[in-house]
């Protein structure tokens, strides 16, 4: 189980993703505004962030870049979950520090699989020093 923040301004999409990931055993909160999401992420320090690209306030790429500059959140896994399907958008997000990139609409099983993989891949780097 992971604590996840999903930054998404479409309420229906937020509900769909929340339901899928809750059924997979995760706790998920939805924040519909980019600037508020950034502040919430900094305060709550989730174990995973799902980030839409087009948002009111800060855009998804702005949030991604800002989070990668913060020592406390530098290693927090981020999956871009967006309608932008082009290779350029995907490449830009991965270069900026996204751990994965999933295009909407998506297969629910694929979302669960990708979340699990990213959490598994980043589990070691997120452990506090001295943890065993």
Element layout with pairings:
Layout: E1 3-7, H1 11-23, E2 27-31, H2 34-44, E3 48-51, H3 60-68, E4 78-82, H4 87-96, E5 100-103, H5 108-126
Short description:
The chain is an alpha/beta fold. It is built from five helices and five strands, in the order E-H-E-H-E-H-E-H-E-H.
What is the second-level CATH architecture?
A: 3-Layer(aba) Sandwich
CATH class identity: Alpha Beta
CATH homologous superfamily designation? Response regulator
Structural class: alpha/beta
Sheet with most strands: strand arrangement: 2-1-3-4-5
| SSE pattern | EHEHEHEHEH
Radius of gyration: 14 Å
Sheet with the most strands, sense and barrel status: 5 strands, parallel
Q: What general outline do the C-alpha atoms trace? A: globular
What's the rounded overall pLDDT mean?
A: 92
N-to-C CA distance = 19 Å
Please indicate the count of domains.
1
Quick one: how many beta strands? 5
Q: Uncertain spans, ≥5 residues at pLDDT below 50? A: none
Briefly note the CATH topology name.
Answer: Rossmann fold
Helical content, roughly? 40-55%
Number of helices: 5
SS strand fraction: 15-25%
Modified residues (4-aspartylphosphate): 52
Domain Response regulatory: 3-119
GO molecular function: DNA binding
GO biological process, one term: phosphorelay signal transduction system
